[in-house]
Amino acid sequence: MQYVRLGQTGLKVSRICLGMMTYGTPKWRPWVLDEAASRPLVKHAVDLGLNFFDTADMYSAGESEVLTGKFLKAYCRREEVVVATKVYYPVELEFKGGAATDAKPARRPNMDGLSRKRIFHAVDASLKRLGTDYIDLYQIHRLDPETPLEETMEALHDVVKAGKVRYLGASSMWAWQFSKAQQIASENGWTRFVSMQNHYNLAYREEEREMIPLCRDQGVALIPWSPLARGFLAGNRQTSDKEEGSTERAKTDNIAQGYYYRASDFSVVAELSQMAGEKGISNATLAYAWLLHKGVTAPIVGASKIHQLDQAVAALKLELSAQDISRLEAAYQPHSVLGHS
Ligand SMILES: NC(=O)c1ccc[n+]([C@@H]2O[C@H](COP(=O)([O-])OP(=O)(O)OC[C@H]3O[C@@H](n4cnc5c(N)ncnc54)[C@H](OP(=O)(O)O)[C@@H]3O)[C@@H](O)[C@H]2O)c1
18 in helix, strand or coil? Predict the structure, then answer.
């Protein structure tokens, strides 16, 4: 395993981060694995040398944090492992996620967002579910348009100073918003974000316009979510997935079906599959290697089967030429912005 610094911090993370959204309860999303099915995957990830795990309070309404805490306690040393979680969305089984089209629960006051009250409550709830007394990387899952950014940034700084959180990170938003948040923190002597968890993969590259150059300039670590476009890049997705998808996620991940699945997205997969065949590797290994060549610190990988973890780690050894990279990028057609809501 390779370990690198998270941005300009002294914190060392494995170059593959395991996304814990896949583990929790299928009552939340049908493709999520329960405790018994998840355990061997997390154990294997630790055996491969991963020390970086990303969850969120909203995943499986807290159950993902519970399993993350339980597994990492069983398989890792607390001082070695890097536990990342997030705050913003409501923590309710009925809340399926930002872009999901399912009916959303009626909004209750103070049960989501990034107010001072909510952050103070949420951090304690996450600590309790994780079974730890500090979070290594506490990330805002989105920006809260109904809370002044100054209130959010001060509250985040306060949870760091209270010893509950070691580092702060942010997730999808506009680059100008991220820049404004960093400036507010700097002006007030508050803690700045050290990482950006954004939506970036071969089928969605809009982040190359503003956010990625900003983060590279500022030394902020890039830890993209859905590096395989929620499985779309794996090569086993088709337009008829809703009826006859080859995996539970292919069939039921309505966010993936809403984001990708355009003809030009399938052309990206066709070129990826062609090159993966020529190199004798999986689409997944090649798609992760492309990201690692684009200056990403650690892709946050989703894995529902053991071999998928091995194929992610294999990407660390794969060298790509400039010609390989331009071939992989050639079929891309710009998307409207996806994943900010
Ligand atoms: N900040 C945010 O807003 C946000 C949003 C989304 C995700 N995330 C984070 O990012 C993590 C990863 O997201 P994701 O699960 O969407 O990531 P992903 O890596 O794009 O997709 C994972 C899916 O791809 C398929 N797959 C993985 N490896 C494969 C392989 N070698 N061969 C074939 N198929 C393979 C599996 O689907 P099958 O089960 O169909 O095989 C797996 O469930 C999450 O766990 C979460 O921590 C954050």
Answer: strand
